[in-house]
Amino acid sequence: MRRSSSRILTSHAGSLPRTDALVAANAARAAGEEVEGWEELLATEVRDLVARQREVGVDLVGDGEYGKAMTSPMDFGSWWSYIFQRTEGLSLDEGGAWVTDRHLSTPGDTRLTGFGSRRDQQAFREAYSSPTSGIFVGEPPVFPKVTGPLRYTGHAALAADIANLRAAADAVGTQDAFITSLAPGSASRIANEHYGDDVALLEAWADVMREEYVAVIEAGLILQIDDPSIAENYDQIEPEPAIEDYLAFTRLRVEALNHALRGLPSDRIRYHLCWGSWHGPHTTDLALRDIVGTVLTIDADAITYEAANVRHEHEYRVWDEVALPDGKMLLPGVVSHATNVVEHPELVAERIVRIAQRVGTENVVASTDCGLGGRVHSQIAWAKLRSLTEGAALASEALRR
């Protein structure tokens, strides 16, 4: 991955807004309809998207997760649910559970509960129940459950994603292009009726996901691991666990990920950490200082994380206490997916500068908190990316002084 040297480089966290044509085509395909010219449409959309990223000044471009189906303009889950269309051994769970209650052999015997049991939702039950609050949670969708041996079957879809991004990147003359892929720990958050325990389940998901990891790297692209679960699971454990117990729970997921990444070049891998993209209060989020040491043991040279999220923005001070290991770099989010307000470039620059002053300019690439696609309107998302690149230019000037 290219590092910032003469100026602060820019990127984003993955998902970008889909066009009306792409949303409509995905909805038709989800309904079982044949979409004539689907492959050509997807390739064209990715090509245009990459060109637009370069036009607004984004340096490290992605495919916007366009190959991960989104059937409506607002969709918080395609980054995760895409893998269920690419994996054998799953059946629909008519109970609708996101995850089942599960006991782990951790010191505190923690219990991971379902989406409807977030402690944040319990604390703000009236807000989450009100259709006028902006964070209303309706009936959960039906998720799959593991009912047989897991096996990766998404080779054709992945090959298309790779070919489309490779062609689009070549068209604008860049090698700095990335594709997102799910972490085993995040993939495993569904009901399990086949594997004997969580360790076996995580190992199976690690084997599944490794097929994507290897293919992306071998295609000469940058691999981004999407893994909100590492921080986000904390909000779904009842009762609130001791930090030591939660870290023991989390290390199993990190070990599974590192197993899946074994032998792959860490300088071609970036890891995305966040606290969940839903637009809620987030008062029960885990502090960055509590998880950062575990995150830094992941075999990825770059860490993307939320640094503009107003629940976590103050945590740039963590880098006063924690030394960034040699070879590691940060892609802090400096514009947010959780507000329609477009950040002023000067504020973006301030966010970049205070982190760069702590870890080194060459170790910072300015990014977004989380994916913008499905979280804010397309017009707002592109304005945020413009503000990102303008802010990066201002930061570059300030850091040269």
TrEMBL record:
GO terms for biological process: methionine biosynthetic process. Residues 204-390 form the Cobalamin-independent methionine synthase MetE C-terminal/archaeal domain. GO terms for molecular function: 5-methyltetrahydropteroyltriglutamate-homocysteine S-methyltransferase activity; zinc ion binding. It comes from the Bacteria. InterPro entries: Met_Synth_C/arc, UROD/MetE-like_sf. This is Methionine synthase. It comes from Litorihabitans aurantiacus.
